[in-house]
Amino acid sequence: PASRVYVGMKEKTSRRLGIDSKTIVLPEATTEAELLALLAELNDDASAHGILVQAPLPSHISEARIFASVSPDKDVDGFHPVNVGKLMTGDATGFVPCTPAGVHQLLLRSGVELQGAEVVVLGRGNIVGKPMTAILCQKSDKANATVTLCHSRTKDIAAHCRRADILVAAMGVAEFVKADMVKPGAAVMDVGVNRIADPTAKNGSRLVGDVDFENVRGVAGKITPNPGGVGPMTIAMLMQNTVRAAEIAEGNAA
Question: How far apart are CA 172 and CA 117, in angstroms?
């Protein structure tokens, strides 16, 4: 259900911007070979400038193999090993994963000082945690932060969080970050999306982030709401990557 909502947002934003968006919905029983064949067709289709495969995939399909089969030049999600490698080495010609790119823009456009900042990233996933770490530690006037990456085996996560000038929560644990874990005045970026039971809600549940927003907002200097904070920026970065992919394909890239 969460993926269906996300796909709908992509389609709506594409239409608003004049980007031709086509969604191909396949049965869960689709084989990996069938999906690879479809992606090969799209790679060869000059009218398709960007391709993304909506995760999660059925258990019988390898996400790593599928992501690696998308042409790096059309990989607007930034998951292909070539683009991952470019991000790690500071090569700006690759595509950056949309969610961490959106968090980066939120920090920059909100006037949060990154140079020399102590950043703690919660979660070591390939979609957010690892690329977020790579973005913020780059030798750049838009980064140069000192980044600590925490995960489920990190000792005393709360102690790490309390020294962070910038805290990025991407663990996928509902309201994990509490007020006593946040440094007063810190910028808190809530990436997680979790559905919890709520008998007062129409469908019996509601979406929350990885941060206990109502209590943390009184401690943080800046904080993203969730939903409505990082999510729209993820869509914006996807659109930006798609436009750039089209410009590159047409030979009009700056």
Answer: 24
